[in-house]
Input
Amino acid sequence: MATNNSAEVAFEMYRKAIKGGDLELARIYLLNAITHDSRVEYLAEYVDFLKKNASPEDEEAYQQAYNIMSMAALNCHADDIAEIRQLIADLQSISMANAAEEANAPEKESSELAQIERELETFSWPHLKKNGRLFSASVLADKAAALRQALGSGCLSDDQTKHYMDELEETQWQINLVSLKESLGSLFKSIEEETARVSNKISSSRINALMAQATSVLSQIWILANEGPLSERELREEQESMQEAFNKTEKVAQEVLSQKTLELIKSKLKGIEKNLMSIDSVSMRIKEVQLAVEYIQGLLPQIVFEEHRTSVQSYLKRLSELIVSLSRMRYARYQARIAGLAQRALKKYDAMTMVFEADAINILEECEFCKVDESLLSPEAAGLFQFAKSTLVAKLDMVKRVDFDYKCVVAKKFNLEEI
Output
């Protein structure tokens, strides 16, 4: 009874170990139960345990089971011999199945390798090029997955392993190229959508940011080393194609970005034309135009579209020519003003029967000869002014002449800006 009780305890511990997932401990408890009581129930449980848990290569476990069954057949009750023989037959069946599986392993491995090769053939570079799927992100991802599965199969030769590892690197390179190409296309689409907005809703900062991103992606494409399935010529064609698409997008973006600034400049020019008509002072006109030139030059860096930039530069040229024209007009008016003073002085002089020193001084002061800047006079105006001045000064004695010359030196002069 003690023996049977020990067997039952060991068998119960076996069940708990099975539930806990500790197979090795469960096997020990089961063998302990059989050692104390080799009843058919325990023996059948052991055969079932081996069938479920023993590996085909575990010959020692099967041999041990044969020995246990053989001893049980000799020591058991006569009524149990048939069942034990059946258990031995079951062990033999399991062993034979394992042997057959081992024998078929190379054939199975060969079949698996053939299947791998067939699958990867559909992903070969010539096949993908022929079917136009070389730039399909999903197809390339499937190819990478198939290559990783093949490399992890354990049935490749060293040469095959190297070949597939090299091809996996090429696939990763191609995936990177496709990813960059798709990113660039997505940026182009975003830029196109942004530039298509109504002018007052266009976000210049967003367009500039998108163009900066596109420039960065394109530069990454251009510096790619040729380590994929494309030839040097094919890679260069892809790069040039994306550069061409970038140039077109950039031109549209530049035109849109420049348009708003161009409209500001045109509005400024219209304002100038209107203001000049209401200003009598030539100097004030010149100042107005000069301020406009400064304003437009400050906006010029924002005009990135070549055609708009050319237009703005032509506007600046016209404004510069206008400044030159107004400057000439102002200079001519200055000459006329000074010539008028000289003419008025000579008329006053000529109208007097006798011109005394006091009369000459009065005329010189009334006509403000001391305020004339002779360096600003043209030869014609200077000649007339000098004739009038010398005619009047000739009536002065030495002291009065010195006084007059001193006044001419220290007096504030008429300048062009007063015209």
Q: What stands out?
A: The radius of gyration is 54 Å. Residues 101 and 229 are 41 Å apart (CA to CA). Residues 232-277 form the longest helix (46 residues). The chain is about 80% helix and 0% strand.
